[in-house]
Amino acid sequence: xxxxxxxxxxxxxxxxxxxxxxxxxxxxxxxxxxxxxxxxxxxxxxxxxxxxxxxxxxxxxxxxxxxxxxxxxxxxxxxxxxxxxxxxxxxxxxxxxxxxxxxxxxxxxxxxxxxxxxxxxxxxxxxxxxxxxxxxxxxxxxxxxxxxxxxxxxxxxxxxxxxxxxxxxxxxxxxxxxxxxxxxxxxxxxxxxxxxxxxxxxxxxxxxxxxxxxxxxxxxxxxxxxxxxxxxxxxxxxxxxxxxxxxxxxxxxxxxxxxxxxxxxxxxxxxxxxxxxxxxxxxxxxxxxxxxxxxxxxxxxxxxxxxxxxxxxxxxxxxxxxxxxxxxxxxxxxxxxxxxxxxxxxxxxxxxxxxxxxxxxxxxxxxxxxxxxxxxxxxxxxxxxxxx
Length: 388
Hints:
The protein is of the alpha+beta class. The chain contains 14 helices and five strands.
């Protein structure tokens, strides 16, 4: 008996000391039996290494594009006619003088080819421009009236074009960052609007049923049966030419949302059809809950993880739709900067052959779309926590 008492006292003392001494506390582990659905989804999502890495990529893209004035060395509209179609300047650490701890770029000399009459650039090793981080430069407006002139990197002499220049001598790196603000925000805002429409209209169809469900189903089938590009072109043609860039932006978001809500609406409707006979829904209905309260307070939260997975898969489709519209010249128009607008110059095969770096906005679209798709796949697999 004394041994058991002594052992129990020792355990009490050890637990007391563990609480007092930092770093000695036992590591908390997630109890699968008592964990919430959100915790189980996050636990399963972290097992998808590719999806987790893609989520980091998406966060980085949004941070860099939101604070584009800080990360971009120049204003996106600043041009230099003497640097038209200048090739990208490669970051270097080694020169003829040896190793340099500070990265630098070489300048270019420009000559016109007497046979082809094209401007040709040659690397000039006598022009070496060190890269300085957190360098003062052009003044910019961040947001909410905040002004600044501190840039993530820059040069004190000359100019640096890490991704080359366009046909007017504007920095492609800065323009891609600024263009990401429009393209990525259209994905979020457009999906938010289509998500609201999908939950409301699809929820009513699945919850009420009957002739209302039949009408909504026929409407969904009609919208999904129409060819996307002709429908986009027809709706975009209705946007007045005299609208400001902000009005055109809002119009494109509304157009894309009115077409994209059907996919989310069908998902919501199918879930509501399976949930409306559940006990918690019947109890809420008997307690006098309205249809809006049933939808937003009881039924939608029960499959929120599935909705999040569908949303992450819908965002890249929205980004691709905006890029396609702007690339065809029926979406956003200059001076608005988006990835689709930047790719309009890639329609000229001669320009692309001479300056292939003009296709880099398409690379940014590919990276963003692939990252969203990987995150969506990871969330969709993790949405059923008890399947693993």
